[in-house]
Design a protein that fits this description.
Four copies of one chain form a homotetramer. In chain A, about 35% of the residues lie in helices and about 15% in strands. Chain A is of the alpha/beta class. Chains in contact: A-B, A-C, A-D, B-C, B-D, C-D. At the B-C interface, loops of B face loops of C.
Chain lengths: ~425, ~425, ~425, ~425
């Protein structure tokens, strides 16, 4: 990882809500949130209590892919609180407990369903670093050297990649329908509705709908990677809810356990559940502790609409204050959607300077984007209004300070980074 | 998964030591041990206590790849109790928390180090089901259809694959040194010293040493996948210790957390640690809860030689009694090493019948091998002598009963499976 | 092959200039010209005489890659008449005698030079059907089923692919320079300046120059596939001469022998000639008979500028009369450059109808394009003005007749194809 | 190319029968025979006369894949003189005119027929250097660097690869039938019955029959690459005739035109001819001049059994005298079958010394094998007894001289090569 907060002398110790403490007792506001794994903050008391209770009653901790009471309870909650209210009848597959594992499973399943190899993925997409997932990931740093050929993926420009005037879905449309385009018929179209690592790029509803339609007409499965954008991060449980589409496959991980525990799942439209028994196996497919906390997370936050309303309010606050921060930096723009947002300050060096200063002032942030040029703001969704404002105050001050310093150096001819 | 104990109406609830209970209160002896993930049994009291304490003091649960007090404590223990006493100076990389993730990292690193693509893997090897790992896995059931081409791996016959008279390392030796053999220079040779899923096939020390030498002379990295055979399963912490070799890369997972929690790591000889910062990343690389229990596991079981001596005693018991069981089945053989053992009963149907009857009598077992023809006996290493004997009694009775039934049906011309 | 003239009852026998005769003595004007292999017409008398002389004096016919007097004479002519006058110092490699063989060699060499795997090719490109070449070919019909994965090529939109307003080179530019685009650094950019099989699509000079510049700045070799467009077909010996660029590698085949004999070569900038001796071998790399006729072709047609001037005049005639033909078909457009041209009539069925009627009237034509919707006009470059006019008369009459018939059927509601 | 006769100052000019002349008039006996492309010698008078007649009557020279009178005449001869007498009903496909082109077509077709990707090829096999063919070729020199991944092929040890006692087909048998071997179900098994470039390794009839049976039982197509060993080189038209097998696909090239002209074809059992029209196309599939000479070759040499009887007599002479030569070199062995034979002298340097001295004495030879350690003797099959003896005299003298020189140096401690 790249940003300053990953300094070697920082040894984290305890954490609660949106605050982490290092071994010296120093506190930090955490606007990284485990890169989206801690949407409900650190050590939520209800999840913690449930996990301790599970431990104390000798609840089983590992049962391969066998059924357990904890798994059953999670599935019941997931079906009643997530799937049914959204009119979805997807099956739930527990893959290995990381997003990359689930992406691997999704691509393998889509290839099996369609009998095709090719997968469409997008510029700046990030889907993990295992070989199958990495083929779909855009980042050159992770794609690595020529000694590991990655294949089976065709890259298409994401929404907005060629600027405002050009609908990039047009290229995909033409190439899909042109028998001489060189685009092999796709097994899947894999996309994030907001590209987290790619720089908080937001796809428009119309573009996503067109892509969904192209998947459908070309016989490909639509796979939404909601690893980072899901679990409420953009305001709804799934990031695609406002768009009126229902993907064939959905990948969830990161915040699905609610507590930062490794867990991932793949949602599969019933007609595409063509796995043979044990075909895609793995030792840690059912992380029982994660089932325990995940169930509590669903019951606590998704039984009513209150949480979504809270997130909407916090999103508005974020949008407003990030705009203030962006106004301090020439050419900067606010990016993202919901509580998955940030400021593109134009260069990685600039963003690193802002992150460094925030860290000194007690705020942890990360960067994202092709050049790490985006200061990424990913607070726990549960961050109280006061703390959110505190963090944004620090960010604004840091942004202002870096901007001033740069201006000064610039006018004195000393800009280096 | 394939065997009977994965029946849908079994819902596991609690577990302690070598015993699991379902929601109806029925108890089972667990000789599956999470496919090797529960070498220290279920819910070890010391690990549980440490994890509860961590939870109660709001110990951080997720910190991406940042340092935490729990990670530091684990690393200290791992270095002083595992690496140093064995004269190893490997670096520790936390990959995604599954064995497949760690295998992916190992292959990627070996390819980066050598600038080569090809990896040598062996017949009946099992290394996971993500795309990069799956390429090295032999099992056709998992390798799946032609729509997912797996490449970059050359398959060689494992020790004993062509019968007793033939040293299969000779083929690898010849092909490595013949410039016209069609074998591309390998980045890595990847092997298990005992093939768990492959049927408890045991490589001889001489064969492993020759393979290690071939890796060295051909400029390939020797990668030992100790996911299932490591953490004491064969009697020593690493399965290769008795052979006098030191692999370049070692993959550990399954029992490394001690408690069945997802965790994996890759040991890297320092000269091969050529990763750039963040090059092989992932959200769940540092499962803090697993660090907590893993540290306790190391301190509790590997501070002295007592545990290894216990495992040796239990291994002897297992070997003796499995021989008795094998004697009941015409043509059956005992397979495996240490407490990673079983009986090859000749057919999957036969093995399934034995496993089914054991389950009915309260003993959980799995099968392994190309045809699931091996009844696999993988008790927790901590299983008390009495319980071990109880389980083996059940196995012997079941084996005898199935053998009799088959004989009867055979003499009446009614054998079907 | 698809078009009507490939009917099974047509058995060709003799040919001279632009006229072929079948075994029944029926004559046809040949505006297919061996898909560009017969730029100088059939059985040119000077080449024929030279070949007969070679045969009569027992000139060697096959000498592997050893030097022969015929090869030496060809190389002398090629250097003095083609390379030197154009300021090129490329080395000449004789690959296997087909265009695909030479494309394979070009891609292999570019990959060896750069140490990269990826090759940029374009929508609607056609480069052959061997596995390496096929990966760069766009046509789905030839790319075939999922059982033959083709990889190592990234497809980009050709000039004009997204309509007039959009410079498709912009996408390549952005993706090359965006470290997170998912585009792996290319070994080569491979293009035809006019896409023959792809539908006579013409790249603009500005677009080609920008692509050449992108190759240069991204460290990729620029490879021009001049198999069909070279040897004078577009008016100059190489199709790229008017654009002021010098490719790193140039692939020639088809008309290079002058007589329709199998021959191919690869031109290599000296600094990229990194082949080891015998690295890219093959039995038929030096087709001696082809050297004999190829030398005559160069001396006869490329010693002065007269031939190019003739081709320019014929190109003008073609352009003018094809415009007349296109005017007869609603929505039809003239396509191509030089004597590599045709009419896009909108559908494969329409084009087939035109070709069928021409054939009945004694004119052989082919179709091209994603849907075979382009009537392709590729006469020998040596076709006398009178014969050219005769052929175009037939084409105009056929186009008119088909247009009328369609209109009639359309107004009577009977259009089917 | 590697051997001495490829010296740059040798410029070949004319040739007749088994004798070639350079531009200075110096003559050489040609025991290279175009690496098997000149089985009937240089400039056979009947083929030459037929080709001159074709040229003089303006016989068409290039007709893409359209029918021509020359193609029809060849096919008639091939069917009546080759296929029918051998009880074969294969279809004939003209691929691009090189062996590699035909191998590419064979593999593509086998993959299409079976829906599988994997192809079994053997150690030391040589099948060409285009990407698809190269994947099946063993030679590391040609397989090249890691920037060109070659895949889709699994390598198995050829007959005799592990010494006399071990039947290497056993490994293939086991791996094919073991569902966990890691060997993906093959589309094809591709083999040469004698490996020309690989060092004149001869497969035994029993081994070939077992491989044929394994292809059949595993649902793979048996593809015999008879490019070098076919057209009479081993004594029968096809090299596999004595073995009582009928391959599903047979690849012919090199001597099929009879005159050293580029030509290749693929024989396909009718039930496997699943090509769509034009699916595997190419400009030079029908080399008309080659059809003319190929027809004459078949009619002249394969209408009666006389030629085969002659070849048998010459083969005996070769075997006897090569044994004499081998006796002069400690450890040397005679290799090969029919008139495709040579001496393994133990090292490439040794073989090069022999070839060099032969060349000085007027005999052209090549080397073969993993280390170029085999002096390869491939005279035209038509070489008169007297010339054959002359050439072998030169070879024996050269072998003796090199052996003496080495012995002398050896006893004086000066061996360098």
């Amino acid at each position: 990882m790249r940003s300053y907060c990953r300094r070697l002398d920082l040894i984290l110790d305890t954490a609660e809500g949106s605050v982490v403490r290092d071994v010296t007792g120093r506190e930090y506001l955490d606007f990284v949130a485990g890169a989206g794994s801690l949407n409900y903050g650190h050590n939520d008391p209800d999840m913690r209590a449930a996990l301790i209770a599970h431990l104390e009653r000798r609840g089983i901790s590992h049962s391969l892919d066998m059924f357990s009471s904890a798994k059953r309870a999670f599935l019941t909650a997931f079906e009643s609180l997530v799937l049914l209210p959204r009119g979805m009848d997807h099956r739930v597959q527990f893959t290995g407990p990381t997003g990359a594992n689930a992406v691997e499973a999704a691509l393998k399943l889509a290839r099996k369903v369609t009998g095709r190899t090719n997968v469409i993925a997008f510029t700046n997409g990030f889907h993990g670093v295992s070989q199958g997932a990495l083929a779909a990931t855009g980042n050159r740093h992770h794609r690595g050297g020529p000694e590991i050929p990655l294949y089976g993926v065709t890259r298409m420009p994401y929404d907005g990649y060629l600027g405002d005037g050009i609908d990039t879905a047009e290229l995909l449309d033409r190439m899909l329908h042109d028998p001489s385009s060189g685009l092999d018929a796709p097994a899947a179209i894999l996309l994030e509705t907001v590209q987290g690592e790619g720089g908080l790029n937001v796809a428009s509803p119309a573009w996503v709908r067109r892509i969904a339609e192209l998947a459908s007409t070309s016989g490909a499965l639509l796979v939404v990677d909601d690893i980072q954008a899901g679990c409420g991060r953009t305001g709804t449980f799934f990031s695609f809810e406002p768009f009126g589409i229902v993907p064939d496959l959905v990948v969830l991980s990161k915040s699905i356990s609610g507590y930062g525990l490794p867990m991932a799942l793949l949602l599969i439209r019933p007609e595409y559940d063509v796995w043979l028994p044990g075909e895609h196996n793995g030792t840690f497919r059912g992380n029982v502790h994660a089932f325990v906390t995940a169930r509590v997370a669903l019951e606590k936050f998704w039984s009513t609409r209150d949480f979504a309303a809270d997130v909407a309010r916090r999103s508005n606050l974020l949008a407003r204050r990030l705009a203030e921060a962006a106004a301090l930096v020439p050419g900067a723009t606010v990016k993202g959607r919901g509580m998955m947002c940030g400021i593109d300050v134009g260069s990685g060096a600039y963003a690193a300077a802002v992150v460094r200063r925030c860290f000194a002032d007690g705020l942890m942030l990360e960067t994202a984007g092709s050049y790490d040029q985006v200061v990424k703001v990913l607070p726990p969704l549960t961050t109280p209004h006061k703390l959110l404002d505190d963090g944004l105050d620090i960010l604004l001050a840091a942004t202002g300070a870096v901007a001033s310093a740069r201006e000064t150096r610039s006018s004195s001819g000393l800009v280096t980074a």
